[in-house]
Amino acid sequence: MKIAILSRNPQLYSTRRLVEAAEKHGHEAHVINHLLCNIEIEQKGPSLFYGADYLEGFDAVIPRVGASVTFYGTAVVRQFEMMNVFSVNSSRGIVHSRDKLRCLQVLSKEGIGLPKTVFTNYSRNVEHVVSSAGGAPVVLKLLEGTQGLGVVLAENQNAAQSVLEAFNGLKARVIVQEFIKEAGGADIRAFVVDGEVVGAMKRQGKEGEFRSNLHRGGTATILQLTEEEKRTAIKAAEAVGLGVAGVDLLQSSRGPLVLEVNSSPGLEGIERATGVDIAGKIIAFIEKSVTR
Ligand SMILES: Nc1ncnc2c1ncn2[C@@H]1O[C@H](COP(=O)(O)OP(=O)(O)OP(=O)(O)O)[C@@H](O)[C@H]1O
Ligand SMILES: [Mg+2]
Ligand SMILES: [Mg+2]
């Protein structure tokens, strides 16, 4: 098969591993920088060109679209879809996953466990907003935050109200979320491919830090998920509409709670922590899905 890996950087671990796995399975892999693709739309049908060449004869695409280029990246994925090329993640699923709020809205509809979350149009009644989220301590998150930046723990009602007022004053969009204390500064990354958890790791924040992000100094170890955790992760990936997803869960006293679902989850941390050939699982998913 001819497989396109949409990535801006062929040197990245995830990109390199996908190329390696595709070739190992006997396929032809092309790393394509989606930002350099041009989209052509006309009556005779959709097409894509890349430099001087048309992109033709592809059987599948693996989007690795960075959060900062979601708009153009998903337009390119959609064009491949219109050309009947199978994508491991649909353009719609990627768009869903990119917005913390939209993602939680979709998960809630499916009855998936999540921390109670409140979002308002800069409501001035901050006391009510904080108490709706269960009262302090609460977590405030900037909608456009990433890698743990813009995620704040407000320990008491006063702190929560003043932080929320400050964000509101700056017209910064935030969600207010129940704080899951018993998670103990750790979260779980469950890697889902084709409706199955293929690997999972626990990420523990550094001493005194409630955020477990590896970018914030957290550490990762392999973890065996419970059946309930597996079910939750699989259901979350399905609800958002992703064939390949990194589902982040908190372990709480009322079971697993989903924080977010990522559509271009990194392979390095999870392959190193688990020793599983995750790139190979993604290629196997394509082999199963594409009938030539
Ligand atoms: N409601 C919560 N209760 C307890 N801990 C939380 C809660 N929300 C977030 N955390 C901790 O903070 C970390 C960062 O939060 P979150 O994943 O929501 O934002 P982010 O990492 O900035 O987003 P992204 O992963 O998209 O970059 C989580 O991994 C988790 O360890
Ligand atoms: Mg996160
Ligand atoms: Mg994320």
Write a structural description.
This protein has helices at 13-24, 70-82, 91-97, 100-109, 126-132, 157-169, 227-240, 268-274, 278-289; strands at residues 2-6, 28-32, 37-42, 45-50, 53-54, 60-63, 86-87, 117-118, 138-142, 151-154, 174-178, 186-193, 196-204, 219-222, 244-252, 255-262. By secondary structure, the protein is of the alpha+beta class. It has 3 domains: 2-96, Rossmann fold; 117-179, ATP-grasp fold, A domain (Dna Ligase, domain 1, 2-Layer Sandwich); 182-262, ATP-grasp fold, B domain (D-amino Acid Aminotransferase, Chain A, domain 1), CATH 3.30.470.20. The strands form 4 sheets. It has a 5-stranded antiparallel beta sheet, with helices on both faces. Strand 15 and strand 16 form a beta hairpin. Helix 1 (13-24) crosses helix 9 (278-289) and helix 2 packs antiparallel against helix 3 (91-97). The chain is globular and about 60 Å long. The mean pLDDT is 95. The protein binds adenosine-5'-triphosphate and magnesium ion (2 copies). Residues 115, 139, 141, 145-148, 151, 177-180, 183, 187, 210-213, 248, 250, 259-260 line the site of adenosine-5'-triphosphate. InterPro entries: ATP-grasp, ATP-grasp_RimK-type, ATP_grasp_subdomain_1, Rimk_N, Rp_bS6_RimK/Lys_biosynth_LsyX. Keywords: ATP-binding, Ligase, Magnesium, Manganese, Metal-binding, Nucleotide-binding, Protein biosynthesis. Residues 104-287 form the ATP-grasp domain. It holds the Pfam family Rimk_N.
What distinguishing features does this structure have?
single chain; 292 residues; alpha+beta; Rossmann fold; Dna Ligase, domain 1; D-amino Acid Aminotransferase, Chain A, domain 1; five-stranded antiparallel β-sheet; four-stranded parallel β-sheet; binds adenosine-5'-triphosphate; binds magnesium ion
